[in-house]
Amino acid sequence: MPDKVITTLLSDLEKLFRYALAHCEYVCPERRDPETCIIMSILSKKFGIKLPCEEDYGEFKRETFEKLIKEIEIRRGKKIDEVIRELEKNGYKSLQDQIDHNDAIFAVEVLRAYDKRKLLSEEKEKE
């Protein structure tokens, strides 16, 4: 289904944002959706409200997750796909293993979500 533009009150959008923010505060990182996280980060800037994950990751932007992947690759001495495969195969031997695994998967998914948004945006421009 193609995206459509709607008009709504900014105050209504902010209420929805604050409602969704409860998910960030109480459910994340257990259940998170990278595409929704990107949307939340865009809206958080518009409303001047920091997301809880900014304490862990810093500003929610593509470069943040590219840097996170690089840090994990340097620490582990392997490409991110190898890190993920190895941790899934061998399991966790430390808390750092679990953190690296969760962060690696999320960072890769966030980058894919940014790529998808970029493609959709480019397709819209062509129309």
Write a compact overview of the structure shown:
The chain has 6 helices and no strands. By secondary structure, it is mostly helical.
Walk me through the structure.
This protein is mainly α. The protein folds into two domains: about 5-60, no CATH class; about 60-125. The protein contains six helices and no strands. The longest helix is centred in the C-terminal third of the chain and has 32 residues, at about 95-125. The two termini are about 15 Å apart. The mean pLDDT is about 90.
SSE layout and pairing:
Elements: H1 10-26, H2 34-47, H3 54-57, H4 62-76, H5 80-90, H6 95-126
Helix pairs in contact: 1-2, 2-6, 4-6, 5-6
First and last CA, distance:
15 Å
What order do the helices and strands follow? HHHHHH
Q: Tally the helices: what do you get?
A: 6
User: What's the shape?
Assistant: globular
Tell me which oligomeric state these chains represent: single chain
Radius of gyration: 17 Å
Q: If you average the pLDDT, what whole number results? A: 91
The helical percent reads over 70%
How many structural units, i.e. domains? 2
* pLDDT < 50 runs, ≥5 residues: none
Structural class: mainly alpha
Number of DSSP E strands? 0
Strand content: under 5%
Largest sheet: none
